[in-house]
Design goal:
Layout lengths: L4 H13 L6 H10 L18 H16 L3 H4 L7 H10 L8 E10 L2 H6 L6 E3 L2 E13 L9 H9 L6 H8 L11 H10 L1 H17 L3
Antiparallel strand pairs: 1-3, 2-3
Helix pairs in contact: 1-3, 3-5, 3-10, 5-8, 8-10, 9-10
Length: about 220
């Protein structure tokens, strides 16, 4: 997926500005002060490239917005406005701003030309064939991270600038779904039952990650 950094930035800002939520201008100034628009969405699992975080957020927005037109979801999301859709989708991963830093890691390559040009001692074999290890650019979690959780941190950051509804707080807080520790699954299930936007955002996050962002 080709990432257009400037276009994504402008789309992101325009969508959030359109919510007309008091304090949004200050929130967007905060986002601008971070690396959000250039940050990856993960260290190596999905959209681990420059601009991946903003692209992922826009992908989640598109997936979540489509649910409003889906007959399965139409009734459950009937009372959820376009402003809430934009806010929870675009800001659910705000916690990842200033979280990653550039690094390098070793990775297998099976490229025949690269393998052929390597020293014999470098060449290994596995079930896929001959390969060598080579160093590629990567990301790692910064040592200066602020460990306030994931969904919790995003909700706290957003609440510092704009007032969130209870639906929005719940959706952002619980968007990771059943990747949360098992001992709080009862709370997660309750949140999903009482606030369908929680499940809708979690599904949209998965759809973006697994369906739109895989190589």
């Amino acid at each position: 997926m080709a990432i257009e950094l400037e276009k994504n930035k402008e789309d992101f800002k325009a969508l959030l500005t359109s919510t007309k939520r008091p304090g949004m201008e200050n929130l967007l100034e905060f986002v601008e002060s971070t690396d959000f628009y250039k940050a990856p969405a993960s260290t190596r699992f999905h959209m681990a490239v420059e601009g991946g975080l903003c692209q992922h957020s826009l992908n989640v927005y598109n997936c979540l917005r489509a649910k409003k037109q889906n007959p399965v979801w139409a009734k459950a999301l009937e009372g959820i406005g376009e402003d809430s859709i934009a806010i929870v989708a675009l800001l659910h991963d705000l916690c990842k701003a200033d979280l990653y830093e550039k690094d390098f890691r070793n990775e297998k390559t099976y490229d025949e030309k690269i393998v052929a040009a390597a020293e014999k001692w470098q060449v290994k074999k596995d079930e896929k064939g001959s390969f060598i290890w080579h160093t590629v650019p990567s990301y790692k979690i910064s040592e200066n991270r602020v460990p306030l959780g994931h969904g919790e941190k995003s909700a706290l950051l957003v609440q510092g600038y704009i007032q969130l509804t209870l639906n929005e707080v719940m959706a952002i807080r619980w968007h990771m779904g059943f990747t949360e520790p098992k001992d709080i699954w009862n709370d997660l299930g309750y949140a999903m039952e009482k606030h369908p936007l929680v499940l809708a955002l979690h599904e949209a996050d998965l759809e973006a990650t697994k369906l739109l962002e895989q190589d």
